[in-house]
Write a structure and sequence with these properties.
about 325 residues, mainly alpha, 13 helices, globular
């Protein structure tokens, strides 16, 4: 019975994230994880910045300690909930914890807020600066000198890539946890796997870079994130056409998306960007600036339309539709097992 209650808490947490998002009055787990990662990363860089080997193995310690701690906290709360026969307080902790693993509303709102500020013929420099600041918060590239079209492209690329990291990745692993715990309460559950994936995602976003000290310190974090997001990104590739008008061209769209997506260095971000690009018929990729260096990313959907506010709205609708499809599918699988 507790396992079924856990599943319904999972479904309720999805709805809460879609409607409310992250409550302002609660410290987000990512903030706590981020503080730990930042402190221990600064320790290694400050004391061993010239020793690549220590940075390399230190990065493994940072990754494993962060993920293990997140997992254990989630597992303890799960065990307390089950052993207390679905105690309300532990149920609320799981509900809020699972909701914090998802970022549907915050991700969609942040990008829509940017698109709403951009007018076709924007001349207000103050508004343009505000847009650049908001875009800079969601991307790692330098957009200080970017055109409005580039700002829209950056927003769409962030939205399509982070839809997996912030929505479908955690949804996948939380569901796997709800299935595991049906067989044994000592197997990884929804909260322990959800917290673990969130820790992995945070590690990658904070230290998973290929420059300076992070090349060594963030190596393991980036690889672990690649592995944990591999399956969710492929499932998004296979299921997104099912909730779109391109369902009649299912095989063709998947082949084109996969062909363009694997050109990226990341085994996952290119795939997720590509399938959204082909479904919404938008062109992505091109010139980007990182630390005063211009990097040319592979073009995705070269015959697609330029990025626009309308394309952002279409992609946001696709994300919501796909979530509904996943929830229905998960529910059928859960009660059939």
């Amino acid at each position: 019975m507790a396992e079924i209650n856990l599943y319904f808490i999972f479904i309720a947490s999805i709805g809460f994230d879609l409607l409310i998002g992250d409550p302002k009055f609660i410290i987000h787990p990512v903030q706590i994880i981020g503080i730990y990662i930042k402190q221990i990363t600064n320790f290694f860089i400050h004391n061993f910045k010239k020793n690549k080997r220590i940075l390399f193995w230190g990065g493994l310690f940072i990754a494993l300690s962060t993920i293990a701690t997140s997992f254990v906290i989630g597992k303890i709360i799960e065990l307390m909930f089950i052993q207390s026969k679905s105690n309300l307080i532990f149920g609320i902790l799981i509900f809020l914890g699972l909701s914090s693993c998802l970022a549907s509303k915050s991700l969609i709102l942040s990008v829509k807020e940017i698109s709403n500020l951009i007018n076709d013929n924007i001349t207000d420099q103050k508004t343009e600066q505000i847009v650049k600041e908001k875009v800079q918060r969601i991307v790692s590239r330098d957009v200080s000198t970017a055109s409005l079209e580039h700002l829209l492209r950056s927003s769409i690329e962030s939205l399509t890539e982070n839809s997996v990291d912030g929505i479908f990745g955690p949804l996948f692993w939380i569901f796997i946890g709800t299935v595991f715990i049906k067989f044994s309460i000592f197997l990884p559950g929804p909260l322990s796997l959800g917290f673990s994936y969130k820790a992995i995602s945070t590690l990658d976003s904070m230290i998973g870079y290929k420059y300076d000290h992070y090349r060594y310190l963030g190596f393991f974090s980036a690889k672990i994130e690649d592995c944990s997001t591999f399956l969710p990104s492929r499932i998004v590739l296979l299921t997104l056409p099912l909730v779109s008008s391109k369902i009649k061209k299912y095989i063709s769209v998947i082949k084109k998306s996969y062909s363009d997506g694997i050109k990226y260095d990341s085994p996952n971000s290119g795939i997720s960007e590509a399938i959204f690009a082909y479904i919404s018929n938008v062109k992505l990729g091109g010139e980007n600036k990182y630390n005063d260096e211009i990097i040319e990313k592979p073009i995705i959907n070269s015959n697609g339309n330029i990025c626009s506010k309308e394309k952002i709205n279409i992609i946001c609708q696709l994300i919501l539709r796909l979530q509904i499809l996943w929830i229905i599918t998960f529910t059928i699988i859960f009660f059939k097992i």
